Amino acid sequence: MIRKAIDRITLVKPDEQRATIAAFVTVFLLMACYFVLRPVRDAMASDWSDSEVSLLWNLQFILSTGLVALYGLAVSKLPLRLVAPAVYALYSLTFFAFYLAAPRVADPTLIEKAFYLWVTTFSLLNLSVFWSFMAQVFDREQGERLFAIIAAGASAGAILGPTIPTLFATSFGLDRLMLLASVGLLAVIPLVFYIDRVCPGGGASDRGRAGHSQLIGGRWWAGFADVIRDPTLRWIGCFLLLYVFIGSFVYFEQKNLLAAYTRPQRAAILGGIDWVVNTLTFVCAFVLTGRILRRFGMAATLALAPFAVAVALLALAVAPVVLVLLGLQVIRRVGNYAVTRPAREVLFTQVSAEQRFKAKSVIDVVVYRGGDAVSGTLFALLTDGLGIALAAVSFFGAAIAAGWGAVGIRIGRRFDDRQPQPPAQPSKAPQVST
């Protein structure tokens, strides 16, 4: 009865429950580790000037690009089943090294800035690697049902993670939080091997379990080239870039509207947004997203959040008040975490293994960071440079959101038109008469 209830509510089949739960726990740990480290990183930044932080942001784009290139080289040299464990082991060891170095250096500023940059690379690459692995072991049909549920684990980690430094930063010390995150990442590695072993379908059927032990090979720069020349990957990159633009616009509008409040009031408002977003994400991920994707298709699913954001931005242009802004933030973040992000990850179940591991990281990290740099500059030009009011900027953002939705429809239609191929049946040996 319990299994039937789970199947009815979540669309998880009985033979998929172990792999789904393990994947949920894996992304939960990844996000919890990041949110343990993020306050440590941001606490360091408060001691630096705006010019120093701005320089670090520019260095971050260069570092992210180089790191993705090295990751592409590792993907070419390692068996698929070792790629994700190798990445998480590397981050675990480096955070442990920061833990050892931080209290032992006379002038820790250089170490702290290196830590700031390294945590920022971890924030995007760790999830990109995780979802590449998910798209490898689960097939398209499973992804449409399960990815939203698995993604809810990220929201759970985002809830628990910040509570640890909030409650224990003073007693533990910042360096021990680095150690805690290092240990948490080590716990991820056996979970990755377990998922690969127990996952039904996906890697066991249409891709072949033996493929996980083989090398992808190819050039380290193949991911960069594929994003430029492959139409599907190019449109996915454009879709993510427009999402980043919207996120930056909303962030700056939020910053400006909350300027009239005290810091405690801002913290209370933003904390309330986080609570509402994570609660709604859980509900949508477990109950709604898989059903929306299976019933209405990829095109409608990818366009749902963008067009809702466009409407909310138009409302903000008409009534630029905090209450409308809060509604906009909830719509944007819940739409992304519960609907858009899981649906976007399903797209990568239909590309080659090389594109899944190499090109995906280029989109998730390099395109994302490039979008941050461009959109932040664009918003500053519109407001500080040209003196455009908030209402006019909101109209501009609504146009970008509409374009974001149009790109989602284009990508979704191409995906919906590509029906998954049934697994090849083994040919029977010819009968030989004697």
What is the strand tally?
Answer: 0
Proportion of residues in helical segments = over 70%
The chain-level mean pLDDT equals: 84
Question: Which regions contain 5 or more consecutive residues with pLDDT less than 50?
Answer: 202-210, 422-434
Strand fraction equals under 5%
Query: How many domains, in number, for the residues?
Result: 2
Task: Write down the CATH topology of the largest domain.
Answer: Growth Hormone, Chain: A
| Overall spatial form | globular
First-residue to last-residue Cα separation: 55 Å
Q: Gyration radius, to the nearest Å?
A: 22 Å
If helices are DSSP runs of H or I spanning 4 or more residues, what is the number of helices? 13
> In CATH, what is the homologous superfamily of the largest domain?
MFS general substrate transporter like domains
**SS-based class:** mainly alpha
CATH architecture of the largest domain: Up-down Bundle
Largest sheet: none
| CATH top-level class of the largest domain | Mainly Alpha
